[in-house]
Specification:
Low-confidence stretches: none
Helix content: 25-40%
Strand content: 5-15%
CATH architecture: 2-Layer Sandwich
Order of helices and strands: EHEEHHHEHH
Number of strands: 4
Number of helices: 6
Shape: globular
Distance between the termini: 37 Å
CATH superfamily: Transposase IS200-like
């Protein structure tokens, strides 16, 4: 396997469940903006469909996200994260700049059918008609992962995600979390 020069060495285990954390570049709070949150969740949904992983819990905070995820035999955690990070950042940048980046060629057709960027661009322009107040969107270069060791470890990380809005002082009814009934079709665990 060829690693990027800044890559961490990853451990890949069959049937492993991972707790994953990824932050925005410079911890910029991009996800104060609803359209970016909606785009991220839609990218998570599409990535899950394309990569076939199980998603047990997730939350999108103002500057980072957490996932409790189990890759399948075809795509490992690195491939899933690369897809999610690349496509979500590309789509967020396309939303703020209609002439901006386009999806990777192999996913262009899928995205054309599943994700209408024009609707997100319109929503963004309604909120920011005169100028884009945001820097270009980037994720930090890597992400943190932790392989779940046993049922207690799973429960700890599941509860950690569930109570993350309180930890970060997010609004009481923070919608971008797996417990929101609107996103129950993303979840592979009934809680």
């Amino acid at each position: 396997m060829k690693l990027h020069r800044n890559s961490q060495k990853r451990i890949y285990c069959d049937d492993a469940v991972y707790f994953v954390t990824c932050k925005t570049s410079d911890n910029y709070p991009f996800f104060r903006e609803q359209v970016f949150c909606d785009l991220f969740v839609e990218n998570l949904r599409i990535c899950k469909e394309l990569k076939g992983f199980k998603l047990f819990a997730w939350i999108l905070n103002l500057d980072h996200f957490h996932l409790l995820i189990q890759p399948n035999d075809e795509f490992n955690i690195s491939e899933i994260m690369r897809s999610l990070k690349t496509n979500s950042s590309c789509d967020i940048n396309r939303t703020t700049s209609p002439e901006g980046a386009v999806p990777a060629p192999r996913l262009r057709e899928i995205y054309r059918n599943k994700l209408n960027i024009f609707d997100y661009q319109t929503q963004f322009l309604q909120t920011h008609p005169n100028q884009n107040p945001f820097p270009k969107f980037h994720w930090q270069k890597s992400y943190h992962d932790h392989i779940i060791r046993n049922d207690d470890d799973f429960e700890y990380h599941f509860e950690y995600i569930k109570f993350n809005p309180e930890k970060h002082h997010l609004p009481k009814k923070w919608p971008y979390i797996f417990t929101n009934p609107e996103y129950e079709n993303l979840n592979d665990l009934i809680y």
